[in-house]
Amino acid sequence: NALLGVFTPYDERAFPVDAEVRHWQWDSYAQDSWRLSPRFTMDYGLRVTHHGAVYETREMNSAFDPDLWKANQAAVLYRPFCRPSGVAGNQACAANNRAAINPINGNIVSQSFVGTVVPGSGDIANGQFTGGLPGKKSGWYYDMPALSWAPRFGIAWDVTGDQKTAIRASGGIFYNFINRSQYLYNGGPLVSQVRSVLNSTLDELDDVARVGNLVVSPQQVNIPAGFDIPMHGEQMPQGKLQPEKNYQGNVAFQRDIGFKTVAEVVWVGNFGRHSWRTKTANNIAPYAYGKVENLFRNEPINANFLRRDYPGLGAIRYLTTDDEILNYNALQLSVNRRLDHGLQMGLAYTLSKAEGLQGWDYLTEELYGKQGIRDRYYGPPSVSQTQDRRHILVLHYSYALPNPTPGVPVMKWVLDGWEASGVTQFTTGNPLDPVCNTNLAGVENTDPSLSGITGAPNLRCELTGDPIFSGYTPNTSVPDAFQVHFNPAAFRRALPSNGIGNLRNAPMGVLRHASWWNWEFTLSRRIPVKVPGAARGGNVRIQLQLYNMWDAVEFTQMAATYTFSATGNTNATTGQY
Known about the structure:
mainly beta; globular; 35 strands; 4 helices; 13-stranded antiparallel β-sheet
């Protein structure tokens, strides 16, 4: 491409956006501990927080106001065209015949102008303003509640009075810190415009210069909180913004069961609400790319040609705090034996479940509303390696090895002072979402939603209904790593049908990475050493440490990516560790 002078984008920004984003937060609290009786203590308190909205101080901000938008200033875009007389959108077009057409006068120009604004036809800053909301600080585009209240409460109760049985419980409300990602309003076409040359060659730059030097394309804009904007279908309105909130609680029952041993069973809960999400309006109609007039060479044309509400603008972003981001419940068991006769040991087991909303797309919300988003995106988080481990068991021990021949001086010097200790862990795998890619062209392959949905939602697989963990025969003649650990036929790439898009139906976290175990062991000895002239002696410690003591192969990842061609999945590692 470099030798041929071919490039995809060349951009120039009018001038840099040098924003300074700020926000204020202050906290105060009061707390008290009240011992109602020798057996019962209560702790309680209240934290009060002021979360100030994020704002920008250097006039490097802008936002969109629907009341300022004027239809007669909507920009007109050059459309793709196939020389000499055009072809249907689902037909091929040779590379040297691809061009752009001015819808106003029918002039044919270089294809590098496709999706850019016809000079003089309109303004890509239509409906936008700078400086923030009237009567607010500069750069202030949304409000937050003046005060956030966070009560906390806890008890400790000696149930039987013999200090061998205790119940402890606590709960509270906690708020996450506001961050800069919750400010959408830096830059924008009123502050600094990006001028581009797209999908062109160096030989075509003369054409670009004749039409008007560099060109501009519609850019996404951001709407302040509380401004009305057209919604379609079951899309939820923006609503009032709130700080992200977590409800946390735990209840523990603890009992001394004798033998220097204490057992405990605990319930732990953490429930996250009002998570921030950026959504879009001014989207295209559902399944718009199921219509041939919205295609060129059987590929989707730019979404800016099809914006429903405000032509000449890009997507309109807005903030919401509606997401139910986390529901975590855990049963935690522990048994610990205090050091006695040289032995200390214990175990800890956790049975947990973590779920929350893992994504969003405008099509699902428009067609099916809040419940549809929950049905499609609610499940265990699969991005992090640690957020949802269903079972974790940890054993730990330390033992001062006795000398079997204490009366033999030489053997005492050899065998005294040795200690064996170790940690053993068993962990189940974290959730995994299969991914269905394709190397096939055509809108039915590149965008099976037919609605311009990109990213993770468009890479989800379709669950065929076949059993996921049966219906296939593992190849036991090869090592475990190269066997298939789920039924590859259980998933397939989604395809649209009769102009209706397919957003895929595989549940979140439908697969799990490999479970694993690990043994770590230490054998050590302390040898006392007398230090001449010192009041106290010292010691020399020798130690042997074994990590992964049994030298076992521990798989923690499973491949679940498909790459479909015309003949099927071409990814040879799908299903393997």
